[in-house]
Amino acid sequence: MTGVNLFLLIVLLVKSVICLEREMTVNIEARREDCFFQSAKAGDTIDFEYQVIDGGHGDLDITFHLVDPTGRILVADYKKTENNHRVDAGMNGDYKFCFDNSFSSYNTKTVFFEMIVEGDDNSEWDDENIDMQGLRAEDVYEMKVQDIQQVITNVRNHLNKVRHIQDLLKSIEARDRNVVEENFFKVNTFSMVQICTMLVVGCIQVVMVRSLFDDNSKVHKIWKNLNRR
């Protein structure tokens, strides 16, 4: 079998599995709901995973729901930090997935999500679409089409899993960094308030003590009147 013919066969095998993968990081403003749309065919599988990586100065949570083309809600999450769903598309059309931050009054939420739409397309496997010119009968049988297809599919699935794990680790790292920065801001703010309070209290104590030994001060006169009573 020539190298060109083998390459042609591998290309046709790869086309037998259709996969659409998208990932985005979006900001959902307070008191708003943002929706996105994705087309899918009946029989496709929709994998969806999201994670709130920044909650402003509030909690890391968001409300999510997935709706089919008829308007029926397939998945609904209320105030979740992260979640993943796997849904089988029951019909052709545009599927809507929405992130709802209407319960938040001031805080903007940053959400990372990844969506994978998988489907099989067997139309490429019709004999009339495959150029068999230059192949002998024994070559066709020796190619072991199913074995090659299985190997390529396994490699593709493993690569997708590796990429998915890398994206997930990246989003977790971003979320942890935002949490650390938020805690750093809170600690610094609380520390400054404590320092200012201590300075004010110290100044008041100094003024009060000095006033007790000053005969002309109002505090000293009030203290003497209290002692006389």
TrEMBL record:
Q: What is the lineage of its organism?
A: Eukaryota, Metazoa, Ecdysozoa, Arthropoda, Hexapoda
Q: Does the keyword Repeat apply?
A: no
Q: List each copy of the GOLD domain by range.
A: 33-117
Give the matching InterPro entries. Answer: Emp24-like, GOLD_dom, GOLD_dom_sf
Q: What is this protein called?
A: Transmembrane emp24 domain-containing protein 5-like Protein
Q: What parts of the sequence cross the membrane? A: 192-213
SUPFAM superfamilies for this protein: Supernatant protein factor (SPF), C-terminal domain (SSF101576)
Q: Does the keyword DNA-binding apply?
A: no
Q: Name one GO cellular component term.
A: endoplasmic reticulum
UniProt cross-references to PANTHER family, sorted A to Z: TRANSMEMBRANE EMP24 DOMAIN-CONTAINING PROTEIN
One GO biological process term is: Golgi organization
